[in-house]
Design brief:
Shape: elongated
CATH class of one domain: Alpha Beta
CATH topology of one domain: YefM-like fold
Structural class: alpha+beta
Largest sheet: 3 strands, mixed
Length: 81
């Protein structure tokens, strides 16, 4: 893993991107304490995260999901129940 400050990253961005395209992870740091603030990594190693209920592979949206709410549902929503 390579590390570079923001200044170094601006100066040598193409070289850092080349390293990332070759499979290496590059960490960009900031400040005097060189706190990590960002990563450059190859797209192949990026795995999109599934949100909330989408993590369950058996989850299916009900057929009426995109239908407008009924009057009763609107009343419940507005009352904060």
């Amino acid at each position: 893993m390579t590390s570079a400050t923001i200044f170094e990253a601006k100066t040598h961005l193409s070289g850092l991107i080349k390293k990332a395209s070759e499979g290496e992870t590059v960490v960009i740091t900031s400040g005097r304490d060189k706190k990590p603030v960002a990563k450059i990594m190859p797209i192949e190693s990026f795995k999109p995260r599934r949100l909330g209920v989408c993590q369950n592979p058996n989850f299916v949206l009900p057929p009426d999901f995109f239908d407008p709410p009924t009057d009763e549902e609107l009343k419940e929503w507005e009352s904060g129940l």
